[in-house]
Every structure is written in structure tokens, then in C-alpha cells.
Design brief:
Blueprint: H1 9-12, H2 27-37, H3 49-64, H4 71-84, H5 92-95, H6 98-104, H7 109-131, H8 150-157
Helix pairs in contact: 2-3, 4-7
């Protein structure tokens, strides 16, 4: 989460198309929707080259796992990055970059506490779902998938979106 959105604001809105398990959007279209929905994200020259690469992969995980930018979904993205991608625990290096530390120290205390209270359930569910994947999602080598529909990628890798029970437009 690299913006100053009001905590909980995403919960009151309609889900984005990329959040639907059955989304027919391509990965590129899902990313475009994610960026359009989150114009406050720091990108480009505002970040170091290392942080740009890290956050691009992080944003792709948001889309592939159907996550918005609420604190609980951010927790899912972090866990899915660790346990469901080819990067594994090397992802932790990205969270130690100066750019990332600057972003995370500005998170609101209330939503951070709420996310921690939901953490036991999120941790178990997300790790279980990652363990059941057919293969690890490619953290940095995902360019070949940009023109593939999200529902096909999720089927191929056996990825369950964060809100699998939610019904939404594809």
C-alpha cells in the first residue's frame, strides 16, 4: 500500500473486476484497472529502481490474487508473495528497502491493529491456499502472462483469490 487512502474505504466500494475469481481480464488489463483505482500509488521516478521492480511484482500479486489495498488484503499479498511465488522469502528484502520502510511507517495505527486481529485466520487460510497451488507464481518473470486472462492464470496455478466467496462481474 503506497498511498494515503482512507482505511476501510475499499471495503465500502464495489469490487474491481480483477478481484473476481472468474475475471476474463488479461493480467495487463487487471494491472491497468488496479493502477487506475489507486492513483496515489508511488511509481516511476518516485522510487529507486530496486523499489520499482519490487513494487511492480507486488502489484502483480495484488491482481493475480484478487486483492485490493485494504490492510487485510495487504496481509494476504505479503503472505502470498512469501509462500505462493517463486521469490519465496527473498521477498522480505524488498520490504527492507528505504522506499518501502518510508511507506510502511506511515500506515494508520487503527487499520494496522485491525489487520493484526484478523491475522491468525488470514495467515492460516493464505498459507493453506498457497500450499495447494499447482506451481509458484513467477514473482519477476510474469511478462509472458500479460495477455492471458486472469481466470486462466488462476486455474493454471490453482490460485484462489482473496475473496473467493465473493461473486462479481467478470
Amino acid at each position: 500500500m503506497r498511498h494515503d487512502a482512507t482505511p476501510g474505504a475499499a471495503a465500502a466500494r464495489q469490487p474491481h473486476r480483477f478481484e473476481s475469481a472468474a475475471s476474463t481480464q488479461t493480467l495487463a488489463e487487471g494491472l491497468a484497472e488496479y493502477y487506475a483505482a489507486n492513483p496515489g500509488l508511488k511509481r516511476g521516478e518516485a522510487l529507486s529502481p530496486e523499489a520499482r521492480a519490487f513494487f511492480h511484482s507486488h502489484d502483480v500479486v495484488h491482481v493475480v490474487y484478487g486483492c485490493n489495498t485494504t490492510m487485510p488484503d495487504e496481509a494476504v499479498v505479503k503472505l502470498a508473495s512469501l509462500f505462493g511465488t517463486s521469490a519465496g522469502f527473498s521477498v522480505l528484502r524488498g520490504y527492507l528497502l528505504h522506499d518501502a520502510l518510508d511507506i510502511y511507517k506511515r500506515l494508520p495505527l487503527g487499520s494496522t491493529v485491525a489487520a493484526l486481529l484478523a491475522a491468525p485466520y488470514l495467515i492460516v487460510r493464505t498459507i493453506w491456499r498457497c500450499w495447494r497451488q499447482h506451481a509458484k507464481w513467477p514473482w519477476a518473470d510474469h511478462q509472458r502472462h500479460l495477455h492471458t486472462p486472469l481466470h486462466e492464470l488462476r486455474t493454471r496455478y490453482r490460485i484462489k483469490v482473496a475473496h473467493a466467496a465473493r461473486r462479481g462481474a467478470a
